[in-house]
Amino acid sequence: MRNDRPLVGIHGLATELGLSVAWLIREADAARIPYLRAGHRRLFNPDAVRRALGRRAAKGFPAEG
After folding, report:
1. pLDDT in tens, 21-41
2. Which of 15, 24, 35, 57 is the most exposed, having the fewest neighbouring CB atoms within 10 Å of its CB?
3. Domains held by the chain: number
4. Which residues partner with 43 through β-bridges?
5. Cβ neighbours of residue 60 closer than 8 Å, sequence gap 6 or more
6. H or E segment at 43?
7. In-domain check, residue 26
8. pTM passes above 0.70
9. In the chain, which ranges are continuous DSSP H helix?
C-alpha cells in the first residue's frame, strides 16, 4: 500500500490522535506501535499507528500494557 503522508514526530502524532505524548512513548518503547528512529527522534506514520491500535482493539488488548 502506498502512503505519501509525511512522517510526524511524537508531538505531532499526539496532537493528531488526541493521545498523550507519555503514553505514545511507552507504547513505542514497548514496540506496540510502529516508528522509525532518526538519530534521537522517533518518526511515526499516523496511519500505520492507527492501524496498529485498531488491530489491538479488535483483539481486545488493554490500552495499557
Report:
1. 999 999 999 999 999 999 999
2. 57
3. 1
4. 36
5. none
6. strand 41-43
7. yes
8. yes
9. 10-17, 21-29, 46-59
CA 40 to chain centre: 16
Domain that holds residue 53: 10-59
Asked whether residue 5 is domain-assigned, the answer is no
CA-based nearest residue to 22, from 34, 32, 10: 10
User: Residue 14 half-sphere exposure, CB side, CA atoms within 13 Å?
Assistant: 13
| Nearest C-alpha neighbor of 46 from the set 24, 11, 16, 18 | 16
3-state secondary structure of 29: helix
The answer to whether residues 34 and 44 touch, using CB atoms and an 8 Å cutoff, is yes
Residue 33 forms part of a structural domain? yes
10 residue type, one letter: I
Q: Is residue 46 part of a domain?
A: yes
Q: What pLDDT score was predicted for residue 61?
A: 60
List the grid coordinates of 41. Answer: 527522534
